[in-house]
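User: Quick one: structure for sequence A, then sequence B.

Assistant: Sequence A:
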Amino acid sequence: MWDREYRVTFRDTLIDTEEIVDGQWEGVHRPGQPVRVSVSDNLQRAMKAKIGTRLVFNVQGTRLETEVGSVRKVNFNRVQTNFLVVFPKGVLEPAPQFHVVVSRVNSAEQSASFQSALVRRYPNISAIDLTQILKSVDEVLGKVSFVIRFMALFSIFTGLLVLLSSIYQGKFARIRESVLLRTLGASRRIILRIIALEYLLLGALACLAGVGLSVLGAWALARFAFKIPFEPDCLPLALTFFSITVITVVIGLLNSREVVRKPPLEVLRQELG
């Protein structure tokens, strides 16, 4: 049983933000027939309702029995009058009503002048500036975006530290391999190429895993949580991948510079005691 207050409307046509996805739209109530209302798809899923499900509304103390006649897909992202429940014409006309008109202005000065003139001429009309509401929402979203970006940078920095620690832990293995290669006659250039390729693959795979998981997580949030289109910006992802990979190669080469500069025996005595 659902018990809450609904702001509903009645009309005989659909608007451009609505689309029938189930059932049949009835814009005019036929006397002697059940009152068939149209509900939004998200409300239909929340109520687990089907076509023909009975709904009872309390309209100013009067019980009004209805049934679900159609389900609409509504684009609530557009700033206009959208409703969860739409009645057909010929039912709610005697009930108390209020009218909503959405208008658009070009500047804040024009909005203030329009509201002043409207209130002076029609004192019983309430004028609400949606620009201020949208600005407040934008400020809140900006703060949330800052927190998310900060946590993302913190995660990148932490991951970079983990990557550097793994490079340092593998230092002795690289030393033994490089000393063995130099003992077998490998030149410095060949050793540096081998080390650079190894750290290139290490940095690329680590960064690819991190970027891939972040993109996958962002897609899942956008698709299933926020119900918005997922449009990633590829340039920051590419820059992150390139910069982290280059940093890994540079640090790996700097960490192995003593191997190619000193004789193998001296390197072994210094590193292994």
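Sequence B:
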Amino acid sequence: MRKYLIGLVSLLILSGSLCLAQTVQPKIIDDFKPSTLNQPGQDYPQVNSQGYARFHIVAPQAQSLIVSLGLGGTRGGTPLTKAEDGSWIGTTAGPMEEGFHYYHLTIDGGVFNDPGTLNFYGSTRWESGIEIPAHDQDFYALKDVPHGKVQQILFPSKSTNTSRRAFVYTPASYDKDKSQRYPVLYLQHGWGEDETAWSNQGHANLIMDNMIAEGKIKPFIIVMTYGMTNDVKMGGMANFKIEPFQTVLIDELIPYVDANFRTIADQPHRAMAGLSMGGMETHTITLARPDVFSHYALLSGGIYTPAEIKDKSKVKLIFVSCGSFENPDGVKKAVVALKEAGFNAVSFVSENTRHEFQTWRRSLYELAPLLFKN
């Protein structure tokens, strides 16, 4: 387990280490617009049509200011230059990949959030966020379609001696037909994130709403909960123990959801998926408890091998994905081996993305139509 966790951390860092500066950079087009994630009325940060990001911070007493990009600053820094009026301004050395990116400000060695933008939980803290418009952003856009609900639940957890929180997505049809029951996907976040990530950063609810409205999927429920039970700080992932969380998920959360929502409460209609650390959790728990889940999905979260799965008859689907700058060959080879062993296995590689949410948004979009087909 320790080697598995350390490997995932290394993957996150390596896949996120983008050098924004290229050998020959194109001329920057001056069509910058405020990021869609900005606070109301705030002009910065801004992005342009090429994917460059521009930052403007008012900090007249500061001596240095760097924008640290990526989860925990793993994407490198953009130094800002101080103007005569005491404000700081700067543009990334090169374009950023499409999609959502965490960032924070390093001011005179201290870590702060950008007051111009919204905050998102990542890096075990609330981080600033910026959105680089994607060519395929339509599938998670807010549209005039029937919308489901994302509601907070507090469920009792005897094993942790507290009440724990989860968010539950129910499709738009849930409140209309009281006789209908639904399959359930248990969807886990990544390291340093929490149960808000898939709705806030991932737009899972909008992806579902749009696909249901287009008739691409049959409606199902999604449950998103915090994937840890012990207080582990950034960099201490190797100390994480999954067994207590498995107890929370299997013995406490699932029974609560089945008792309080109209679920189809059996193994064939229950799936588990997760990104990064959530993929590790999915891998471990689905193998340990094949009686609970029938659909497995690892999103930048490792692979399955045929030898790991003791009863092939219990597995309806194995889905494995990653970004093209991660480990696409490993993902594809793993799925080929699973298919040769007789499993219904599918691979997906998100083009031109790394260990970040655009990879996982696209992964959910590809995964959802494959779930609960029978």
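The CA atoms of residues 124 and 192 lie 4 Å apart. DSSP finds seven helices and 19 strands in the chain.

User: Thanks, that's what I needed.
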